Amino acid sequence: MNHELTHRALRSGEYWRQIPGFSKVGADEFETHQFQQRATVTSVAQLRLVLGELVGERFYEDLASGIQNAPMALRISPHLLSLIDWETPEIDPIRSQFLPLRSTQQPDHPMLQLDSLAERQDSPVPGLTHRYPDKALFLPVDTCPVYCRFCTRSYAVGSDTERVGEKLKLHASQTRWDQAFAYIESKPGLEDVVISGGDSYNLRPDHLEAIGRRLLEIPHVRRIRFATKGLCVMPQKVLSDARWTDALTRVVELGRRLHKTAVVHTHFNSPNEIVESTRRAMDLLVERGITVRCQTVLQSGVNSHPAQMQLLVKRLGYINIQPYYVYFHDMVPGVEDLRTSLAEGVEVEKRVRGTTAGFHTPAFVVDTMGGGGKRDGHSFEYYDRTHGIAVFTSPSVKPGQWFVYFDPLWGLDPGVRERWQRPEERRAMVAAAIRNAGGEGSAGWQALPGAGELAGVPG
After folding, report:
1. Strand locations in 278-415, DSSP E?
2. What DSSP designation does 122 have?
3. Cys bridge to 380: 197, 320, 368, 390, which one at CB 3.0-4.6 A?
4. Closest CA to 241 of 81, 79, 36, 42
């Protein structure tokens, strides 16, 4: 196929038959949400039964050790398992996102915080974050159809793990939801609500419709977005769970009648995640008049090469998903191997821009530590590439404060990595970066949200 048309070559056929545990499963069964949910793998023991001797004992031991160092429990759908290249799983972009191998993990950055975006700091009621003047993030559930090992919300999503015990519980609760609705009603400036979690895929159809209707009927709410990774990890649900898809459709249609918008925001990271069943699911949503946008995470080895990101963006556009954001990877426990430097991402963005229409070209953004919100990756006030520190301001969200992003240490010189292990040295490096950005030395450091907590993280 012509190289310019590679994005149209979608994997099809019974791709799951290569997996021993799925080799006798027909299409009529595999392509249903019931099978996908029933056969979801949640332990190494289950994975052994499904994969058998496709991989050796060393892989299973590596995975078991990696899970102990991961913030998220293991949960992966048959669909995703079947898309992994099991001849070279160590370098496969899908495996690396969902099955943590201890041999590939890097030590955490010493400035890491569990809730690095300070979502709880900006939560007026449980499960609702209000940071931007006209937008709120609503978390009605704390579960997902699969668990990404790099989840930003690992402080709350999924079951407790060895690495992150006693997570914040945000189970589905009408009482808690009513608190969120009451707060939104009390804020006439709120026009935009993101319904996430967890994942809105895990909302029951009646709950999804009730939440959507409740929000759209608030006069000042103009836009709602259902956030879900479901299209990537389990497109079969859109195609076979008519009750859920019909409920989503009714909410979108209600929004249209009210002259408001209800859309879906989804999450793909690798072009390998987009296959023929993904396109069929999107074809159905397009027929229903449902707009879908994508928020990608920039990840080393997954989409950090310009060609990988170019193919992903083109393939998303081909199946009518609009690329919206590419996030520089948040600082999450146990996933330092997936992060890239700010410089790498800026270079990828340069190569992506111009490959397709502007409205299908995503913005590359840093969601700043400490709650400054999303900032364009190019908009830093100062970037110290030697020490891997970028400084941002957020004048429309939290004026007068300084926000930082840290490159992964594994990409820095050994001497610099050693400096980061000493608390007094890292305080000095961050303070110097803030001064160079225009801050006032120690006063600038104190203005950094969470400065005391950051400084106290042991090396």
Report:
1. 292-298, 322-328, 363-368, 373-376, 382-384, 389-392, 403-406
2. G
3. 390
4. 36
* Largest interatomic CA distance in the chain: 67
State which residues form the domain around 334.
120-376
Is 0.85 surpassed by the pTM of this model? yes
My answer on whether 369 and 396 are in the same domain is: no
For residue 254, the surrounding DSSP H or E stretch is helix 242-257
List Cβ neighbours of 291 (8 Å cut-off, separation of 6 or more). 261, 263, 264, 322
Nearest to 23, CA basis, from 60, 45, 44, 52: 52
CATH number where 168 lies: 3.20.20.70
Q: Are residues 41 and 152 in the same domain?
A: no
pLDDT tens across 115-166, in order?
Answer: 778 788 889 999 999 999 999 999 999 999 999 999 988 887 877 787 776 7
Residues of the chain with pLDDT under 70: 1, 165, 440-459
- Give the bridge partners for 368, in sequence order: 373
The residue written with tokens 């590939």 in the block is 104
Residues 88 and 131 in one domain: no
pLDDT tens, position by position, 163-186: 776 777 788 899 999 999 999 999
- Strands 322-328 and 292-298, by their bridges, are parallel
In a domain, 103, yes or no: no
> 34 lies in a domain?
yes
Residues 6+ apart with CB under 8 A from 320: 282, 286, 292
73 with 125, same domain: the answer is no
Question: 60 with 47: CB under 8 angstroms?
Answer: yes
- Percent pLDDT > 90 in the chain is 85
Extract the tokens encoding 361.
């070209």
Tell me how many degrees the CA angle 36-264-32 measures, rounded to the nearest 5.
20
**Which of 98, 131, 156 is the last residue before a domain boundary?**
98
